[in-house]
């Protein structure tokens, strides 16, 4: 839009490979500078010339220690969920530059549920995804109903439906991948952190789609999380995601994975930072208390000095290796270079 005349021109994507830009942009005359990334590059500083429409990376280009030949190769997919609704996802098949599965072989797949929950999984290079796809495990990042980037109606699907729409949409993608022969129906898993941890736990306790799951610094018990255990900024978040507690208290109990922990029948890994003030360890502890004595294979790994989102390299390595070991044990994969995760019963 021209600031002086108020006239607007055609809206187009910035030239170049970038599929995601940071929320903050700097404008100087006819030049716009921001931080962008793509499925083949990490975040880098990008300058756009509005007069010519040309864009370029400025400063040092993104570099990392991973050979680009191992980068995951996304496929943008739209699936059909309950009631015919669209469900958007980024599907990353297993990918290795020197190895391939036999033709027609269905791969194990992990459904990734993003946090937020009113956020989205961006279409950008994620080396954590490459860690799994290079070892024969496919990943499907599901932008379930409630995710941003697909319009207001899509975003508002989650209103008072958290724990329903997100769970249904993730399951719809998993089932569709299995039905089309892409994924092995007996080797499906789900994982997520924060709100994605909630979706993972809710999926494991209310569906029979998955063989295992990884739950990372999650919300598990709604009645205590909103009013008592999280920070002020998100303390009223549940009023739009579930409904006002005073009006629908039964809904808070019914939706909570802790309430249905007795339905859990598959192995799981629970990862938690001990300094997390957003999703505190007490959420995990109550959940684990509900499954005590059930001989259910699981592991609970805690990390001192870590909050909501792991920051230290040793923590991230331990968490990734533990997650891969879980999938290897459940899916029957050989990963000799990874320490074996001890699953307790």
From TrEMBL:
Gene3D superfamilies: alpha/beta hydrolase. InterPro entries: AB_hydrolase_fold, Peptidase_S9_cat, Xaa-Pro_dipeptidyl-ppase/CocE. One of its GO terms (biological process) is proteolysis. GO terms for molecular function: serine-type peptidase activity. Residues 128-332 form the Peptidase S9 prolyl oligopeptidase catalytic domain. PANTHER family: PEPTIDASE S9 PROLYL OLIGOPEPTIDASE, PEPTIDASE S9 PROLYL OLIGOPEPTIDASE CATALYTIC DOMAIN-CONTAINING PROTEIN. This is Peptidase S9 prolyl oligopeptidase catalytic domain-containing protein. It comes from Streptomyces roseochromogenus subsp. oscitans DS 12.976.
